[in-house]
Specification:
It is a single chain. The protein is α/β, with parallel strands linked by helices and about 375 residues long. It is built from twelve helices and twelve strands. Helices cover about 35% and strands about 15% of the residues. A seven-stranded mixed sheet has the order 2-8-7-6-5-3-4, sandwiched between helices. Strands 9-12-11 form a three-stranded antiparallel sheet. The longest helix is centred in the last third of the chain and has 20 residues. Bound molecules: pyridoxal-5'-phosphate (PLP). The site of pyridoxal-5'-phosphate (PLP) has 12 residues, from helix 5. Pyridoxal-5'-phosphate binds next to helix 5.
């Protein structure tokens, strides 16, 4: 239970500094950074200001550490992980390389960072989109399906797709699987599925508590030769930092690093402590405490226990309700007619109980 006097979770919470009186339940919009990340970012800015920074060691190489941490969080490999600035950049790169004419199953109301690049592929590469209900994803995969692409956990309501069923259907019919795991990692265990996911993207500024601009594309090795590295740049050469001028495509990294977008340095310097902490918290069970907060919240407002961390509930006027909740000190979001609440390690049982109390007047 979160909140005991000297338990590890109390220590974890001491790393955060939400405003006094604020109950921040909105990691699905942006997660709050732990103090070591703010310090790393501040240090990076000061060293930039003073001109003393060693940009390779202090900033750029942090991307390599982040790559390894993210791979650990999803049970993948660093060699299959590319560093990208947004989920949509990763999806766009894959969409631009899809085989012409392939049949793609996608949820009808999918988040646009995934849907729009696929619509471009529909226009430019004759890809055929089949837009289906999120609930029907697995059933919609058939003999002609080439790819199923979806948010594993949806941003509008926190629903999580039945990944095992989707993967089983995809394997049965030889379809590829593309997942936006932005709202799933680190709360939905990916380890047992990652080998069956062809392409996975995740932006780190929400549940991974990173600055915006830190995102990942996990690309299974059998796709390295097929996806085209359109963003290739000075840091995608092999070895790293060895190819600034001249050369040929044979000089590109042999692994997924060839798909890196060159880094917005300070964001990655700020991200590294967040990801290191999440890896620790995953191993020590602290992240399970967040899921128990989400279950407590769901039970308190009569919703089923979520698979990830997001809990949502339909209310009459979600925008007005979110604004009224903000006035009581509860920060959450309005999405798709829902009030969306997303706890993280900085929240307590008391936060959850106060949010449940504040929500009561909006629930029929
Ligand atoms: C499901 C999902 N994916 C990705 C993103 C972020 O998109 P991008 O990385 O393209 O900015 C969001 C932001 O709300 C989201 O809800």
């Amino acid at each position: 239970m979160i909140g005991g006097s000297d338990d590890p979770v109390t220590h974890v919470r001491s790393l955060f500094a939400p405003a006094p009186g604020l109950i921040y339940l909105d990691a699905a919009t942006y997660g709050l950074p732990p103090r070591p990340s703010v310090e790393a970012l501040t240090r990076a800015l000061h060293r930039w200001q003073s001109g003393e920074a060693d940009w390779v060691e202090e900033w750029d190489r942090k991307g390599e550490v982040c790559r390894q941490h993210f791979a650990t969080l999803i049970g993948g490999t660093a060699g299959e992980t590319a560093l990208v600035p947004t989920a949509s950049a990763g999806i766009g790169l894959v969409a631009a390389s899809l085989p012409e004419g392939i049949d793609v199953v996608v949820p009808d109301d999918e988040f646009t960072s995934l849907l729009f690049p696929l619509l471009v592929a529909e226009k430019e590469r004759c890809v055929r989109l089949h837009r289906v209900d999120f609930a029907d994803l697995a059933d919609a995969i058939g003999p002609g399906t080439g790819l199923v692409a979806f948010s594993l956990t949806r941003s509008q309501d926190g629903e999580t797709a039945p990944l095992g069923d989707v993967i089983a259907a995809a394997r049965r019919h030889g379809a590829r699987v593309m997942v936006d795991a932005t709202h799933a990692v680190p709360f939905v265990p990916m380890q047992s599925w990652i080998a069956d996911i062809d392409y996975l993207v995740c932006h780190g500024y929400k549940h991974l508590l990173c600055p915006r601009g830190v995102a990942f594309l996990h690309l299974r090795r059998d796709h390295w030769d097929e996806v085209q590295p359109w963003f290739a740049n000075w840091r995608t050469g092999d070895p790293l930092y060895d190819r600034a001028y001249g050369g040929t495509l044979d000089d590109l990294a042999k692994d997924a690093r060839r798909f890196d977008v060159s880094l917005a340095w300070h964001a990655w310097a700020g991200a590294e402590p967040s990801l290191a902490l999440l890896v620790d918290w995953q191993a020590s069970g602290v992240l399970e405490e967040v899921k128990s907060l989400s279950r407590r919240l769901a039970a308190g407002i009569g919703r089923p226990a979520p698979t990830a961390s997001i809990v949502s509930i339909q209310v009459r006027d979600a925008e007005a309700a979110a604004a009224a909740l903000a006035e009581t000190g509860v920060r959450c979001a309005a999405r798709g007619g829902n009030i969306r609440l997303s706890p993280h390690v900085y929240n307590t049982n008391e936060d959850i109980d106060r949010a449940i109390g504040a929500l009561a007047r909006f629930i029929d």
